[in-house]
Amino acid sequence: MKRVGLKIALLIGLLFVGQMAGAELPRVGSLVPAVSVQRGGEIILGKGGDTRQPWQAQWPQSRPQLIIHVAGRLAAKQQLDPVVTRLARTPWVNQQVGLTTIVNTDDSIWGSQPFVEHSILKSKKHAPSSHFVLDSSGVVAHQWHLQPESAAVIATTAQGQIIFFQQAPFSAANIDKLLDRLQLTVKSDLNSSFH
Hints:
With 195 residues, the protein is an alpha/beta fold. The chain is built from 7 helices and 7 strands, in the order αβββαααβαβαββα. It has a 7-stranded mixed sheet with strand order 2-1-5-4-3-6-7. α5 links the parallel β4 and β5. The longest helix is centred in the last third of the chain and has 22 residues. The radius of gyration is 18 Å and the shape is globular.
């Protein structure tokens, strides 16, 4: 009987390792781990209404990027409040940094997904130049090993190298560090474009 239990535990362990094999926690100094969102996708506004298209992390970009990943829960959104408040008071970010918000609607309270999607659509209409991605299968959180029911912020160079990564909670010092690194990257990109 012990052998059967041991074999089952070993099999479950191997299945878990197999599922995590493609997953990678974002690390400062490395490139953003590859990921593609097929279910849900990026919200595209059009004259005939909004549509969804598959989204994937792609580089190079024309400018540094700020990626916000958030579970489709009010508590996770509230974790981002200090970051969002500070970004709103920092106008150069909106002008010189690309913004992508990925909402993990697979990690939402049962029955709330339509309300979460409606809220994201309103945000897209309010900030049409920003990218909003609905991740209906939670693939980004899984691939990047992000904490459930939480939020994360990643900042990158235009080439996709991670310059900042933090999962909630976000302290004032974390946010200062994020903005400092983004500002250095923006200045570096400007200086290199003149040479």
